[in-house]
Design a protein that fits this description.
By secondary structure, the protein is mainly β. It is built from no helices and eleven strands.
Length: about 120
């Protein structure tokens, strides 16, 4: 059974930092089959948008709105994990953040976590 479990969400004040993590298990063919893993987010009344992703070679890509504030990382010796460190958080970063996995990096994210809430408020 495929599971993507997010953790680390919470409430912070503007300008503060937060690290959220995702641990995947049961991914078919992993790690021999290359996976892209990504973070998406969705705010109330808005469409879901990609935040950043990493491909099977470890190459990362970030959406423009992250403006160098966000960084993807993996835990040592744990290729099935994906963390997102977010610095200088702003109110507009408030959203439910979702981890997703794309088998074969086809730009189709087939597996999704349940999400972790990030709230930025003064």
């Amino acid at each position: 059974q495929v599971q993507l479990v997010e953790s680390g969400g919470g409430s912070v004040r503007p300008g503060e930092s937060l690290k959220i993590s995702c641990t995947a298990s049961g991914l078919p063919g992993f790690p021999n089959l290359g996976y892209c893993m990504a973070w998406f987010r969705q705010s109330p009344g808005k469409e879901r948008e990609e935040v950043a992703h990493v491909d099977s070679e470890g190459v990362t890509s970030y959406e423009v709105f992250t403006k160098g504030r966000f960084t993807l990382s993996k835990e040592d010796n744990a290729p099935n994990t994906l963390a997102l460190t977010m610095n200088n958080l702003q109110a507009e970063d408030t959203a439910m953040y979702y981890c997703a996995a794309d088998p074969g990096c086809t730009s189709h994210y087939e597996y999704w976590g349940q999400g972790t809430q990030v709230t930025v408020s003064s």
